[in-house]
Amino acid sequence: TQQIEKHSFDVVVIGAGGAGLRAAIEARLAGRRVAIISKSLFGKAHTVMAEGGAAAAMGNVNSNDNWMVHFRDTMRGGKFLNNFRMAELHAKEAADRIWELETYGALFDRTKDGKISQRNFGGHEYPRLAHVGDRTGLELIRTLQQKIVSLQQEDKAEFGDYDARIRVFAECTITELIVNDGRIAGAFGYYRESGDFVLFEAPAIVLATGGVGKSYKVTSNSWEYTGDGHALALRAGATLINMEFLQFHPTGMVWPPSVKGILVTESVRGDGGVLKNSEGKRFMFDYVPDVFRAQYAETEEEADRWYTDPDNNRRPPELLPRDEVARAINAEIKAGRGSPAGGVYLDIASRRPAEFIHKRLPSMHHQFKELADVDITKEPMEIGPTCHYVMGGIEVDPDTGAAAGTVEGLFAAGECSGGMHGSNRLGGNSLSDLLVFGKRAGEYAASYAESLGTAKPRVTADSIDAAVATALAPLERESGENPYDVWHDLQTVMQDLVGIIRRKHELEEAQKKLVDLRGRVASVKATGGRKYNPGWHLALDLRNMLVVSECTAKAALEREESRGGHTREDFPKMDPAWRRINLVCSLDGDEVNLTHQPVPRMRDDLLTLFERPEMGKYLTDDELSDFDAAKA
Ligand code: FAD
């Protein structure tokens, strides 16, 4: 029999990035007992790596900005596939969440008159990203952690115990959600260092586990991002929505090979950096799609004037949404106009004084100097697309974060949830998403837990035994493949066949290969024991990466159009009929089921924030009649 450490909480938050921490704070403020669990060290999450800033229509730098402009930009960025209610809540509440962070002690950069400064970013009509140099995520995490410490101090004063109502479990990976009769009963996992098992009994769980990037070879994501929350949700009976939409960030490092994929912040372009090919041409002017033509400069002169006079000039095409820029870079490289290391050039050195670059982009300067021996105040950077963010995710109720599907008591927020960003996320909209929907998920998870009173679902002995058996299987097998080999093959399938440009026959091949990989993943062998054993951890992560990859490949084959982060070479256009369809994945045994669900119709008061010529590009004819009626 296994020794299993046991804990009991009202709400368990899995993930200690911005979404998880904000959810935990809210659940604790509602008086619930909360656990925060994180696979890596506390404080090390993607949120801490966020550079550019958090988007919120505070109107500090341009007073024309307001939630309606932000809502429009977000819907445009997502090519109108966003869950409109999430985009609405996000646009309306982001500013309050940023101001609230100040009350927790955040110190944002300032405008000359002392307001929170806001910077330009792709797809945002006005300067909108609240920032701290290019280290915004660090400040966000620091502040949320500080708030947690202050709440723990209050609890110490009241109960004599810092952990009385909020406790952190770091380096602890959840491998299984425990469900009893369709309701969440708890979560099971192991400590990274000791390999010991731990069980959390809890009626409400908030998933805030972030992204899936480690299924790809070239990614800005770090080791923890193996789609755990997505897979846990699926196995518990929840659904995933629109998993075909992945964001390939246009600017990742391409050299040296050991750092390929590491992010180069969009702020470089927001602050004046431009993209050039091997012929020295500023090529983005050739890639402005029709839907965006009216908002983007046609000449370099106009684009350059925009930085100082945005009211009278149109924005540079380097600041198109990320999907457009990534495809353009891909096309330049394919046409033989790439840089020696297989990217293109991002140049800020010839455009801004060294002093400005040091002040605005200190981390980028440090990153290139340390990792590539390139001084970005003197030389251009070599960059190329990198798998960065997943727009698809756990299907949730927009107001409460409750997961859709057959399970009760499960909530999700942040990158692991889906819907908010449609087919493409605008930069800066993730940090604000974490705060807005983290708070909401925490609030509703707390009230759900409270509503159950003492009638909490029980964790059965059978479910614990099953979780233990699954976790130990890779160690106990007599023989089997090395998990690293299987992972390499999975990444190759996703990178080569389900990457930035997709084709029917390649997606079909990917599906076959992923089905073959199922057997291999199920029989990997991890050598060694349970103490700090990365091979074993990978073996367990692999089954998550696999099922999430299957959802992505399946949905990518199904969606016969190109939209946002999903580009089909064989269906290169956006198709208004597909805009009305969400692709939803559920799990039936080992099989991923894919269904079509109608996209909820936008409320008239939101619909009429747009104009006819623009909507003509996105809506079907009968939707346009509705639009005309709403406008009339
Ligand atoms: P994360 O911050 O990713 O945290 C996930 C947490 O879940 C971690 O604590 C992890 O350990 C834990 N976890 C995962 N699996 C398990 C498990 N099985 N058991 C227990 N714990 C688990 N967005 C912006 O808006 N602006 C930016 O400027 C920006 N810059 C970025 C720069 C980089 C380099 C990267 C990678 C992303 C950037 N993004 C940016 C995106 C943004 O940072 C992320 O989308 C966001 O931080 C995700 O937050 P989250 O709270 O959902 O999850």
Automatic annotation (TrEMBL):
<feature type="domain" description="FAD-dependent oxidoreductase 2 FAD-binding">
    <location>
        <begin position="10"/>
        <end position="431"/>
    </location>
</feature>
<dbReference type="InterPro" id="IPR036188">
    <property type="entry name" value="FAD/NAD-bd_sf"/>
</dbReference>
<dbReference type="InterPro" id="IPR003953">
    <property type="entry name" value="FAD-dep_OxRdtase_2_FAD-bd"/>
</dbReference>
<dbReference type="Pfam" id="PF00890">
    <property type="entry name" value="FAD_binding_2"/>
</dbReference>
<dbReference type="InterPro" id="IPR037099">
    <property type="entry name" value="Fum_R/Succ_DH_flav-like_C_sf"/>
</dbReference>
<protein>
    <submittedName>
        <fullName>Fumarate reductase/succinate dehydrogenase flavoprotein subunit</fullName>
    </submittedName>
</protein>
<feature type="domain" description="Fumarate reductase/succinate dehydrogenase flavoprotein-like C-terminal">
    <location>
        <begin position="489"/>
        <end position="599"/>
    </location>
</feature>
<feature type="coiled-coil region">
    <location>
        <begin position="500"/>
        <end position="527"/>
    </location>
</feature>
<keyword id="KW-0285">Flavoprotein</keyword>
<keyword id="KW-0175">Coiled coil</keyword>
<dbReference type="InterPro" id="IPR027477">
    <property type="entry name" value="Succ_DH/fumarate_Rdtase_cat_sf"/>
</dbReference>
<dbReference type="Pfam" id="PF02910">
    <property type="entry name" value="Succ_DH_flav_C"/>
</dbReference>
<keyword id="KW-0560">Oxidoreductase</keyword>
<dbReference type="InterPro" id="IPR015939">
    <property type="entry name" value="Fum_Rdtase/Succ_DH_flav-like_C"/>
</dbReference>
<dbReference type="InterPro" id="IPR030664">
    <property type="entry name" value="SdhA/FrdA/AprA"/>
</dbReference>
